[in-house]
Design goal:
With 379 residues, the chain is α/β, with parallel strands linked by helices. It folds into 2 domains: 85 residues, 2-Layer Sandwich (Alpha-Beta Plaits), CATH 3.30.70.80; 280 residues, Peptidase S8/S53 domain (Rossmann fold, 3-Layer(aba) Sandwich), CATH 3.40.50.200. Strands 1, 2, 3, 4, 9, 11 and 13 form a 7-stranded antiparallel beta sheet that branches. A 7-stranded parallel beta sheet has the order 7-8-6-10-12-14-15, sandwiched between helices. The chain has a 3-stranded antiparallel beta sheet with strand order 5-17-16. Strand 16 and strand 17 form a beta hairpin. Helix 6 runs parallel beside helix 7. It is elongated, with a radius of gyration of 21 Å.
Length: 379
């Protein structure tokens, strides 16, 4: 696959306010080539050069094709090329902003009596719920597996790798740049896969990815703070969302970068592998986004279990992708009372509900807090 940092400036550029998930990015396209070709890179350059354009990202393992900025006058020539299967516009994807706080949790850490229905749960109620079948919950966490042989790919905003929850007790954390995919790179410190600092290098602009990693595999030496489900898993940060990070302006990315990340995971993953995708694209008829659907399906076919969040719109999950796909595990959010969290999407595309209300997690810069959303449930 081509260098994922190609075109960083365009992808990381600021925009005026949040765009809508599914919004078309003018002039940007994903070109899918015939699957039978062998040298994808050479063929992509050949097709693009003939039309006077340059490939930006090349997809060799999933989809088979490339992305490019294509002017209107060159588009018919690209579409008419005998080795081009389809040409689709690049669309906006959006990170999932749930309800939460970056402040220290005010839910007590200490064990107490089993919480009754309607009573605020202890910090780690989600842990208790996933290893118990019946209410009321017993304040007991006895994980069946540590995840020591599992590789988790968090396709999100990156990670603050210096957080105390991500020390040696948390497993074999991948730190080398060649082992990370990052379409932006952190402009402040040139680190691959890291969450974003602001321009003054004194505050974090988003911590969604850090929270996801924490829920999946965060761990420290103190038993009360061991909050990850698979604390010995190996985590790979796969950064495709930008430096948004609040409800008014959530982190976002674009589909050609996401296909690039999926291509990277498909090509480089270690098994058993799980990919977490906690973002969305609005549904567009008759096919939401054929390239993204195809790339995710290829990732599944490559042996990666793909887990996606249902979305926080209190809407039918089938109206959003990748939640609508049959081959992925689409997760909605539940509360301590085994009810659907009020913001969670719902409907026939949901495969399961998991704890997603007031879930304790790490925040960038060694912060901690609780958050609610289907991202927490999927992680």
């Amino acid at each position: 696959m081509a260098d994922p940092t190609a075109g960083d400036g365009d992808r990381a550029a600021a925009h005026s306010g949040p765009r809508q998930p599914g919004e078309v990015v003018p002039g940007r396209f994903i070109v899918a080539l015939d699957r039978g070709i062998t040298d994808v890179s050479a063929r992509a350059h050949e097709v693009a050069t003939a039309a006077g354009v340059t490939p930006e990202l090349i997809y060799e393992t999933v989809l088979v094709g490339f992305s490019a900025t294509i002017p209107d006058e060159a588009l018919p020539e690209i579409e008419a090329h005998p080795q081009v299967r389809q040409v689709s516009p690049v669309r906006v994807i959006q990170g999932l902003a749930g309800a939460g706080s970056g402040e220290e949790s005010d839910i007590p850490h200490t064990a107490g009596p089993p919480p009754a229905s309607g009573v605020d749960p202890p910090t780690h109620w989600g842990h208790y719920r996933i290893n118990q079948r019946a209410l009321p919950l017993q304040v007991v966490w006895d994980p069946i597996e540590s995840g020591s042989d599992t590789h988790i790919y968090i396709v999100d905003t990156g990670i603050y790798s210096g957080h105390e929850q991500f020390g040696s007790s948390a497993g074999s954390w991948v730190a080398d740049a060649p082992e990370r995919y990052d379409v932006y790179r952190n402009s402040a410190d040139s680190l691959y896969g890291e969450e974003c600092w602001d321009e003054n290098f004194d505050d974090w602009m988003t911590d969604h990815g850090t929270a996801m990693v924490s829920v999946a595999a965060g761990a420290t030496s103190g038993a009360a703070d061991n909050i990850g489900v698979a604390q010995s898993a190996t985590i790979y940060t796969v950064r495709v969302l930008n430096c948004g990070g609040n409800v008014a302006d959530p982190p976002e990315g674009v589909t050609d970068s996401v296909v690039g990340a999926i291509d990277w995971v498909a090509e480089n993953h270690n098994e058993p592998a799980v990919a977490n995708l906690s973002w969305r694209v609005a549904h567009h008829e008759p096919i939401p986004d054929p390239d993204l659907d195809e790339a995710i399906q290829d990732l599944v076919d490559a042996g990666v279990t793909v887990v996606v969040s249902a979305g926080n719109d209190n809407d039918d999950a089938c109206n959003y992708m990748p939640a609508h796909m049959d081959s992925v595990l689409t997760v909605g959010a539940s509360t301590v009372d085994d009810q659907r969290w009020s913001g969670s999407n719902h409907g026939g595309c949901i495969d399961l509900l998991a704890p997603g209300h007031e879930i304790y997690s790490a925040r960038a810069g060694n912060g901690t807090g609780t958050g609610s959303g289907t991202s927490e449930a999927a992680a």
